[in-house]
Write a structure and sequence with these properties.
Blueprint lengths: L43 E2 L2 E2 L3 H18 L27 H6 L26 E5 L6 E8 L1
Antiparallel strand pairs: 1-2, 3-4
Length: 149
């Protein structure tokens, strides 16, 4: 049962533009990929590539956690370690850390919503080959060490 919403008391709409200053990779967040695995293909709507709202929310949530922990803003944030639900705070909404109260967590709805970021104009995409580092001596790959050709 999802708890947290009874009535909408306030609504704030923020909008803005996102500029990718480096290569952009939309992925699952998992670090346990083996070479050659694809965690998520480019997300397309027709011919356009877009950034999912869930990816934007994940980045904003991560920054909110970092800021709350660094400022000692909420003592409960220290014990909350997403994305593993077993390591996140639990209980009623007022017993959870400020980040879970805002962005949601196991059994509690998010109070914020992020829409997909769509391109303002036609964008060019490319597929680049990625190499895997091979360890000298035993010819095994080195996990999580990738490079661009």
């Amino acid at each position: 049962m999802v708890r947290g919403f009874k009535t909408l008391k306030k609504r704030i709409i923020l909008s803005g533009k996102i500029k990718a200053v480096r290569d952009l990779h939309i992925g699952s967040g998992e670090e346990k990929l083996t070479p050659g695995d694809v965690d998520m293909k480019a997300i397309r709507s027709g011919e356009d590539v877009y950034i999912p709202g869930s990816s934007i929310k994940g980045v904003i949530r991560h920054e909110a956690e970092r800021i709350a922990k660094s400022l000692n803003w909420d003592e409960k944030v220290k014990d909350c370690n997403p994305p593993n639900p077993n390591e996140m705070c639990s209980g009623e909404i007022d017993e959870r850390c400020v980040v879970c109260q805002t962005f949601g967590g196991p059994g509690i709805a998010s109070r914020v919503k992020f829409r997909d970021a769509l391109p303002l104009s036609k964008i060019e995409t490319e597929i680049r080959p990625i190499g895997v580092r091979i360890r000298e001596g035993d010819s095994n790959f080195v996990p999580l060490i990738l490079f661009k050709l």
